[in-house]
Design goal:
Helix content is about 30%, strand content about 25%. The chain is α+β, with helices and mostly antiparallel strands and about 450 residues long. The protein has a six-stranded mixed sheet with strand order 1-6-7-8-3-14. The chain has a six-stranded mixed sheet with strand order 10-16-15-13-11-12. Strands 2, 4, 5 and 9 form a four-stranded antiparallel sheet that branches. Helix 3 crosses helix 5, helix 6 crosses helix 7 and helix 7 packs across helix 11.
């Protein structure tokens, strides 16, 4: 059995931290605070190993990554900080990011005897992949005393895996990959970022910071297991650009419109197959949950905003409806739901959450739903640290459950990969679903 050998572990601080008032303390918004009891975000990239190296050259590569990480933290002070709290006499607590340069975790490891093929070729994502990420199993509230950013560089026989784990109270998927892109840019020799982050919280002037949360909200089971266990499996499905284009054209033609996007058509197609192939009561209500980026929908939010700016939206149908409707019918419902997330509605949610705070925890995640994480719009394969582009994207364990889907851009332009977490019997049935498999690229 393959094992991970941990070679070294260190704390990396920003090389030249800025002493600017606006970044010494960063307030947490409702979109940040709702993640306090859920888990960190772990995603990473697999690379071919640079040309055969002597031991000293290998050490130089690790040193280079440590140094470039330190320089990148100059531009991302929250990731070198910690979550801080203030308790009040009325039994409420407020949370903020203290940009104190306490540092990020950097781990150097080796996966003994593991090759690139061992990681990318198996039908199911191999269990060892979860060992490529640091800070595993933590809740975001642990960021009070644990690093908000962890990096693990794991050497394979013929490859290198760069795993990054970020506290979800500090960053959403957009900000996660903003940091990853920036680190690779600095690693290639840049002294300045082409896309510097923005930390100011300009939206919703009515928010009075700090936001106070009742302490009773946290009287939950803090030792709840955040990492999924068997019998769940993970599998990656590849969809080519031509096949996605066919699904989009079919969905739009079915309902006589041109408003349905490629992603909406693909996700509707995937949901229908999952429902067809799960052992579900036809009358059971099923939910499909999407994450909607607020940045392009709120005038005060710049594209470079660093933090959480994502709102959940969902459609609900009975299982028999999902099976009976066409791809276009379901995609149109998704399209309508997304369109309701206007600037006014997003602001109403923020105001509502402040008055009625709630936490995203595993007990609230039902098995009758499909939930989407990440996005194929993120720049993943453009992350060249100086020795070539990545060859695969993988995620860590985090919070995974039956029905969790993680979306990636594919290695080929315009293609999309879906990493699905489902029961083995569902995967077996989907493999015999000809309508579905005709759209999958093996």
């Amino acid at each position: 059995m393959a094992t991970i050998r941990f070679i070294s572990s260190s704390i990396i601080q920003a090389k030249s931290p800025k002493k600017e008032t606006e970044t010494e303390r960063i307030e947490l918004t409702p979109w940040d605070l709702k993640h306090l009891l859920s888990g960190y975000l772990p995603e990473g990239l697999l690379f071919h190993k640079p040309k055969p190296q002597a031991e000293e050259q290998g050490k130089a590569l690790i040193h280079h990554l440590e140094t470039s990480l330190s320089r990148t933290l100059d531009f991302f002070p929250p990731l070198a900080g910690r979550i801080a709290t203030i308790e009040y006499e009325d039994k409420t607590t407020s949370f903020f990011i203290d940009c104190n340069n306490a540092g990020a975790l950097f781990v150097h490891a080796e996966a003994e005897g593991v090759t690139i093929s061992d990681v990318v070729k198996p039908v199911y994502v191999p269990c060892i992949v979860s060992s490529f990420f640091p800070l595993s199993g933590l809740k975001n509230c642990d960021g009070i005393f644990k690093p908000l950013l962890g990096v693990q560089v794991t050497e394979l026989v013929d490859g290198i895996f760069v795993g990054v784990t970020i506290n979800h109270c500090v960053a959403d998927g957009v900000s996660f990959w903003h940091f990853f892109n920036s680190w690779s840019e600095i690693s290639r020799g840049s002294f300045h970022l082409s896309n510097p982050p923005v930390f100011q919280r300009p939206f919703l002037d009515s928010i009075k910071y700090p936001i106070r949360i009742p302490q009773s909200l946290f009287k939950q089971i803090f030792h709840e297991e955040l990492i999924f266990v068997s019998p769940l499996k993970e599998k990656i499905f590849h969809f080519s650009k031509p096949n996605i284009a066919k699904l989009k054209a079919k969905a739009n033609a079915e309902v006589g419109t041109d408003n349905i996007s490629s992603l909406q058509a693909l996700l509707s197609h995937f949901w229908r197959s999952v429902i067809r192939n799960k052992k579900i009561d036809p009358g059971e209500e099923m939910k499909f949950v999407l994450q909607i980026d607020a940045r392009p929908r709120m005038r005060e939010l710049p594209e470079e905003y660093f933090g959480n700016a994502v709102q959940s939206g969902s459609i609900t149908m009975k299982a028999t409806e999902v099976q009976g409707r066409r791809v276009g019918d379901i995609a149109r419902e998704m399209n309508k739901m997304i369109a309701t997330h206007t600037e006014d509605e997003l602001k109403k949610y923020l105001e509502y959450w402040i008055a009625n705070p709630e936490q995203m925890t595993k007990p609230t995640i039902k098995t009758n739903r499909i939930s989407i994480a990440s996005s194929p719009r993120f720049n993943m394969y453009g992350n060249d640290f100086g020795w070539g582009r990545p060859i695969a994207v993988k995620s860590g364990a985090a919070i995974k459950y039956d029905g969790k889907l993680i979306l990636y851009c594919g290695a080929e332009e315009g293609s999309i990969d879906i990493e699905a977490c489902l029961l083995p019997e569902t995967f077996d049935a989907m493999a015999n679903d000809q309508e579905f498999m005709d759209t999958v690229t093996i």
